[in-house]
Amino acid sequence: MKISVIGCGYLGAVHAAAMARLGHDVVGIDTDAAKVEKLSAGVAPFFEPGLPELLSEGIGSGRLRFSTDLADAAGARVHFLAVGTPQLPNSDGADLRYVHGAVDALARVVAPDSLIVGKSTVPVGTAGGLVDRLRTAGSRAALAWNPEFLREGFAVADTLTPDRLVYGVADADDAALLDEVYVDVLATGIPRIVTDYATAELVKTAANAFLATKISFINAMAEIAEATGADVTTLADAIGHDARIGRRFLNAGIGFGGGCLPKDIRAFTARAEELGRAESVAFLRQVDAINLRRRERAVDLAVELLGGSVFERRIAVLGLTFKPDSDDTRDSPALDVAARLHGLGARVRATDPEGIGNARLRHPQLDYTTSAEEALRDAELAVLVTEWREYRDLDPERVAGLMATPRVIDARNVLDPASWRAAGFAYRGLGRS
Ligand SMILES: NC(=O)c1ccc[n+]([C@@H]2O[C@H](COP(=O)([O-])OP(=O)(O)OC[C@H]3O[C@@H](n4cnc5c(N)ncnc54)[C@H](O)[C@@H]3O)[C@@H](O)[C@H]2O)c1
């Protein structure tokens, strides 16, 4: 099938390449010429495991190409919409300007029997408004909402073998067309839920709100653990054995970040207020506040471990991205902690396997090094803020030999406290006795 993907960022580039893998004839459109140039050369414009191989395969097969010209999408039967929906600059709401811009432009070029399929995360009610927009612009194209649940770091596998497919449609024929697109995915028995626009939009928002709440719940328990001498990791293991609770997403630390969870829970709160249902999701304000407090807590621990001030003290920050196996530093707790420590006058040396380029754009004032060893050399404190495998696997004896004084804050609770203490470290986790 001829398919276009509008917006080739973390979601869209992977989706376009995955659609080509499924045998479709795909054009990816993005307004960012530099991104399109890279993608066209088979080079991933961001770090995502497995994407370079998928891009090369698609381009080599002749089934995948990229363009800045929306006219190149005109012949497609299905147009996936994967543009960004960031937080508005001065409010909690979602900025829909890219969605509106893309739909207005599509209305001018798409065939009347084509289907526009929203994948971006949008406030409930958006899809209905987009249909009105299409009709006002004189387009008869149909619209469906097919929210995306991929996790950065696992985006390729999550796109090709998702947990479930959700279609928000106004017409059964549109669901049938989506079944054709995903025929090979569905053949593996993946559940498919066909519903209306509002439910499909809300499924995505609700899923992110639930995950954020689960993380903030365990981080709230970490705060109580800190006040009582309890250990939040043991607590999480113990409650996680209850199948109704489950252990996943119960890791206390410096909380969630990235281009999705923080802005999505804020946009949900803003949308609920518009709907006169502010009280229904008022708890999400607490979820957000608990999350942000954990970054402060990591900074406070650094001050405490260094005897009352970080001013002029040498601190190694291990990690900058919001999670491992991604180069994404959008709303990254790790980068925030690095910037806060720098703001307090610390001599921060920050490192990350993939995130330095993006981090430098946001915080050019920080001192970056690609080598963890360089970051740790002569440091008086190490702060592990993104749980990359190479930091989890650090040998405490070796790290102690590099540092001026062996102090570590394990802000993701991924190190073994006993072995770090045995190597002479003053070890502090978050919410750990
Ligand atoms: N990143 C994720 O893990 C993820 C997961 C699920 C859902 N989402 C949702 O997917 C959407 C996209 O997220 P992302 O992380 O890929 O964002 P992103 O910023 O990486 O990518 C968005 C892309 O859209 C392009 N764009 C903007 N306007 C355009 C237009 N009119 N025509 C063509 N291209 C245009 C931008 O240049 C950019 O490359 C958001 O709504 C997000 O919430 C993201």
Automatic annotation (TrEMBL):
Pathway: Nucleotide-sugar biosynthesis; UDP-alpha-D-glucuronate biosynthesis; UDP-alpha-D-glucuronate from UDP-alpha-D-glucose: step 1/1
Keyword Phosphoprotein: no
Superkingdom of source: Bacteria
EC number assigned by the record: 1.1.1.22
Domain UDP-glucose/GDP-mannose dehydrogenase C-terminal: 316-417
InterPro entries from the UniProt entry: 6-PGluconate_DH-like_C_sf (IPR008927), NAD(P)-bd_dom_sf (IPR036291), UDP-Glc/GDP-Man (IPR017476), UDP-Glc/GDP-Man_DH_C (IPR014027), UDP-Glc/GDP-Man_DH_C_sf (IPR036220), UDP-Glc/GDP-Man_DH_dimer (IPR014026), UDP-Glc/GDP-Man_DH_N (IPR001732), UDPglc_DH_bac (IPR028357)
Pfam families associated with the record: UDPG_MGDP_dh (PF00984), UDPG_MGDP_dh_C (PF03720), UDPG_MGDP_dh_N (PF03721)
Keyword tags: NAD, Oxidoreductase
Reactions the enzyme catalyzes: UDP-alpha-D-glucose + 2 NAD(+) + H2O = UDP-alpha-D-glucuronate + 2 NADH + 3 H(+)
PANTHER family: UDP-GLUCOSE 6-DEHYDROGENASE TUAD (PTHR43750)
Family: Belongs to the UDP-glucose/GDP-mannose dehydrogenase family.
The protein, known as: UDP-glucose 6-dehydrogenase
Organism of derivation: Agromyces tropicus
